[in-house]
Amino acid sequence: MLEYNEITVHKYIIYEDQPFEVMDSHVFRKQQRKPVNAVKMRNMISGNMKEVSFHVTDKVEAAELSKRDIKYLYTNRGEIWFCEINDPSKRFQLSTELVGDRIKFMKPNSLLNVLIFEEGIIGVEMPIKVDLKVTDAPHAVRGDTSKGGNKQITLETGAIINGPMFINEGDVVRINTETGEYTERVGGKF
Q1: Residue 151 and residue 166 in contact, taking contact as beta carbons nearer than 8 Å
Q2: Where residue 39 sits, what CATH number does that domain have?
Q3: Which of 125, 149, 172 finishes a domain?
Q4: Residues 112, 133: one domain?
Q5: Among residues 43, 62, 81, which one ends one of the domains?
Q6: Is the domain of 40 the same as that of 81?
Q7: Where do the H-state alpha helices sit in the chain?
Q8: First CA to last CA distance, the chain
Q9: For the segment 26-84, what is each residue's pLDDT rounded down to a tens digit?
Q10: Cβ atoms of 183 and 127 closer than 8 Å
């Protein structure tokens, strides 16, 4: 059981008999009252967001999730295909609602974790940062900072993000998959 102040970001809890992932948590105190933990959480099955205030006397159960390694194969016509790591013939498909849009930053044959709750797959855990090669980056024009000094770059997975003007085709960049933003250049022509 978790106390009200132990319900923090990226914890999995059971609320109303459903598994939830805590997305945001803020403990605060209003005037002379007891502290409250204002929590934003996402239902792991339906994907719906919910805001709940947990009080000092509240306790919640930590969700018993198990993890299993899987391999991402490919995405085709909105279908996302995976397989067992040791047996590529055991293929299965997961919906885009379950996987999320972060899959656009994953290369084929990437190893990921699947989250399992009561024998059912309820989510896919992906790395927070990945290194990807830039396949298309328009040349920067001197003095063109009207767009804030950024340009749109295309990554090897087909994802398009905003990156700094000095990024060129062939560079390897690190991307934060949670925000979809460029973080740094890790390889290429410096």
Answers
A1: no
A2: 2.30.30.30
A3: 125
A4: no
A5: 62
A6: no
A7: 96-99
A8: 51
A9: 888 877 788 888 899 988 877 788 998 888 888 888 888 888 888 888 888 778 888 88
A10: no
Domains contained in the chain, number? 3
- Mapped onto helix, strand or coil, the DSSP state of residue 114 is strand
Are both 119 and 77 inside the same structural domain? Answer: yes
Instruction: Write the DSSP string, the chain.
Output: -EEGGG--TT-EEEETTEEEEEEEEEEE--TTSPPEEEEEEEETTT--EEEEEEETT-EEEEP--EEEEEEEEEEETTEEEEEESS-TT-EEEE-HHHH-GGGGGPPTT-EEEEEEETTEEEEEE--SEEEEEEEE-PPPPTT--TTSSEEEEEETTS-EEEEETT--TT-EEEEETTTTEEEEEEES--
Structural domain range at position 52:
2-62
In this prediction, what percent of the chain has a pLDDT beyond 90?
Answer: 2
Is residue 95 domain-shared with residue 48, that is, in the same domain?
A: no
Going 95 to 98 to 102 to 103, the CA torsion angle's sign is negative
pLDDT tens, 1-24?
Answer: 888 788 888 888 888 888 888 888
Is there a contact between 173 and 131 (Cβ–Cβ < 8 Å)?
Answer: yes
Residue 174: the pLDDT is: 92
**Per-residue DSSP letter, 147:** T
